Amino acid sequence: MSKHYALILAGGSGTRFWPLSRNAKPKQLLHLFDDTTLLDQTITRLRGLIPTENILILTNALQETEVRKVAHMLPPENIFAEPAKRDTAPAVALGIGLVSARDPEATMAVLPSDQLINDTESFQSVLADSFSIASQTDSLVTIGIKPTWPCPSYGYIERGSPAQLEFNTTHEPFEVSRFREKPNPELAEQFLRQGNFAWNAGMFVWSLKTVTAELRQHTPELAGFIEELESSTDVHQTIDEKFPLLTPISIDYALMEKASRVLNIEATFDWDDVGSWISVAKYLDTQGDNNQTNDEITEIESQNNIIFNSRKEARIALLGVDDLIVVQTDDALLIANRHQADDIKKLSDQLPENLL
């Protein structure tokens, strides 16, 4: 276990859950479901599987202060802020370099910080198998989610034949045939019917030896950056100087779609990427005619509304309204058509700077 590391990606913007979320406080830092945040839950899920001192978090300058508050159980030196936005491949390369500087023989997981997973036991079982496979084979491991509907908003992983391993695992890995970009609804339906596709949840496990060899072959720029971090006498200065110069590119394009061998394990745990207020609503209490709310409301002849009130001293009352999203904070009030939940992020282009 001392060779196991985790890189938690905790950046992103706060546009989808406005006005509760802001640029300095995106969804992984919000109290959406209880008194813990998604970031806190991500760290807690690793307890007993990865030593606390081996968990690293990558965020950005705007969110660093809040991330440090939530991740107070980690060593302060394990939290890093990107000096510029450069997409997921440079971010992952930064994490690889930081881990490699500590232990070049390590095996590491890359995990998002903003996904809701409640079944910790199953999650740890899948992750333990992923670590076992990654440390004993020259393959990159990705954890996929079994599709429950033909979602056109996710990338997909196409699985091939079962992987032939010289050891046993609880969860059967499959060879990855290819990664598929976000499909149109018709193609997503086809993927679902075929049955050998998984949603790409952005969870990866690999040994440093394997991933750096793949990067040297397919993305030399990132491999060079990792080598600079490994030999740096001032890591923060190297990050500040070199990271902003890296080409923005996703980890799927830069590495996963080109790698020599990628294996996929299908998740046996529950999973929700909590992509909008519609997703959050599934976990709220129901009042009246399918009004989903985190607080007591007064309602008359109103149905299918989503209400989230973080200003508890202010009562929300509904009269004769349907299909709304109502979110109240101390300094802003959102009233939106629930069928336009994905468009809430567009408001950021017109909101004053102090509300972003």
SSE-based structural type:
alpha/beta
Q: By CATH's scheme, which homologous superfamily of the largest domain applies?
A: Spore Coat Polysaccharide Biosynthesis Protein SpsA, Chain A
Determine the strand fraction and express it as a percent band.
15-25%
Provide the low-confidence segments as ranges.
none
- As a percent range, the share of helical residues equals 25-40%
CATH class of the largest domain: Alpha Beta
Please tell me the overall pLDDT: 96
User: Which strand order do you get reading across the main beta sheet?
Assistant: 5-8-6-7-9
Number of strand segments: 16
CATH topology of the largest domain: Spore Coat Polysaccharide Biosynthesis Protein SpsA, Chain A
Number of helices: 10
Give the end-to-end Cα distance, rounded to a whole number of Å.
41 Å
- What is the CATH architecture descriptor of the largest domain? Alpha-Beta Complex
Number of domains: 2
